[in-house]
Amino acid sequence: MNTRSSAWPLALLFAGVVVYASLYPFTGWRVQGVSPLAFLTAPIPQYWTGFDVVSNLVGYAPLGFLLSLAMLRSGWGRWSWWLAFILPTLLSLGVETLQNYLPMRVPSNVDFALNSTGAALGGACAWALERVGALRRWSQFRADWFEPSAHGSLVLLALWPFALLYPLSVPFGLGHVWDRLESGLVVLMDDTPFLTWVPVRLEVPDPLSPMAEAFCIALCLLSPLLMGFSEMRSMLRRALFHFMFFLCAAGAAGLSAALTYGPSHAWAWLNPQTILGLGVAVLVGLSMVGLSRRLCTVLMLLSLAVSLTLLNLAPDSPYFAQSLEVWEQGRFIRFHGLSQWLGWLWPFAALIFGLRVMARVSVPLEPATKIPP
């Protein structure tokens, strides 16, 4: 089997996550005067926690799984497990070596061994699934459910729940970047003639009204839903995807609240405007299961444009800064910047994807050239 697989871009993205988490916060680089590989023969650390063991073991397992899966689907069956083990092991060796030069990180031979073991387990899992025919059944499932061109959209849809994990000023409101972009441009252009070019808002804008917030929430949910609709083959499959989508959205929002405030506050985000926005999105989504693929893409772009406009014209909520302080001081601090960037960029990546789809389907086919006898 030699097919294009979404596992390749997902593996690349996950490798980026691993590097980010291993080298964060990327500041204070210095040379200690010791051999970069001395940690390999150092004594086993005396102090470690169960969280460190699990995170290092489980952290590399998805990378090994995705690499092995991608190579199996690309026809590299006999080498899939070995490469899925060797490549993450080399990546782990590289980041552990670089940790020698960061004051807040300590390289460890135990971490290196756990990372390699996790990658081996992930690759073995993909190989076992191939042996029992699970990957073949997944390929058939994907062919039955999605259009052959569904690659970028599947990657974006897979990343969407993770983008929701970072605290948001409006539930499901990805892409709220203007306040930070404005302050960043002011700092960048300070003491230059171009400072007057920055469109700085002189007055603090009014917050979104409850009705406008509910409308924005509905649009933010409809955008990825319509992206999924545009790649599916039948109304029944869209209806099933509709149910699973909102279940996943509620779970991701609840997990984000639990990570920020604790498990007892997992559903604190369900205020009246959020419930109204969810209800509107559910009903409108059901009414759109019969739309054409092209119309779904057009409406997705329209939803993204309007929701981004509403979000970026409104200020942050009073409780947003408090949410960020709680998140950034927790044990997931290594991931907060990455999840933040994902939440900022996801809608704009979806816009680019939708525009590319529209440009591709809008190009007329050239008439066939007749070959003279």
TrEMBL record:
InterPro entries in UniProt: VanZ-like
Keyword Iron carried by entry: no
Keywords in alphabetical order: Membrane, Transmembrane, Transmembrane helix
Residues annotated as signal peptide: none
Residue ranges crossing the lipid bilayer per the database entry: 7-27, 47-72, 79-98, 110-129, 150-168, 208-227, 239-261, 273-291, 298-321, 341-359
Pfam families in the cross-refs: VanZ
VanZ-like domain residues: 22-127
Identification of the protein by name: VanZ family protein
Native species: Hydrogenophaga laconesensis
